[in-house]
Amino acid sequence: MTKKSIELYHNGLMTMNWERKYFSTPELDSVELVHNRCGKVFWPIMQSDYCNQDVVFIPGPGAGKDQRVTKTRRRSSSIQRDGLGKTLYRHLINLLGDRWTANLVALAFHGLKRFDDFHKELPVATNILADRLKLLVNEGIFCQRAYRQSPLRYEYHLTDKGQDLFSYFSTLLEWGDKWCQTGKGKPMLMHHLSCEQSLKTQVRCDQCGETLVATEVHFKL
Question: Global pTM?
């Protein structure tokens, strides 16, 4: 593994948490993680003061609009993977492997809820946007709440299942801040309201409490 890929490791560990919590996957349930430093089978956790209900996102110096070309084709079939990767991340890959669904969930963490707000932020055709929102509702990531009856219009709110994807997006954001810099600064800052400080993720071993390092963990099948 390169240094760049090693630093994505925390993201993968938290993805396993989400997969195991919301899906019954015997192959995944049989996988054990062993922390070499304490020698125990463990499960990754975020540090105790990490709270997705108590975080706000503030535009950073590198903030900007999504300038990608609008696409009009519909969603492709589910992405397939072989081997351990398919076992560990199957459902998340199928759900967020499409760029628009991933963007919609990320924007929901920024407080966006309505169709027009999502469309304003993303260069996506309206039929594709409607398709992705329907998918996220069907998958239990979003729930619909009517805010207008005539004509009927809905807001899209993150469910508990959707909220639990916060660790995935926050660790990915930190990786992007480090490795995808454009020289303009961070595009987005995470601010923890409880301590009034900038938030930095910490993925720890639930047995000894130490911060996890990719080279100090191995899989036990």
Answer: 0.74
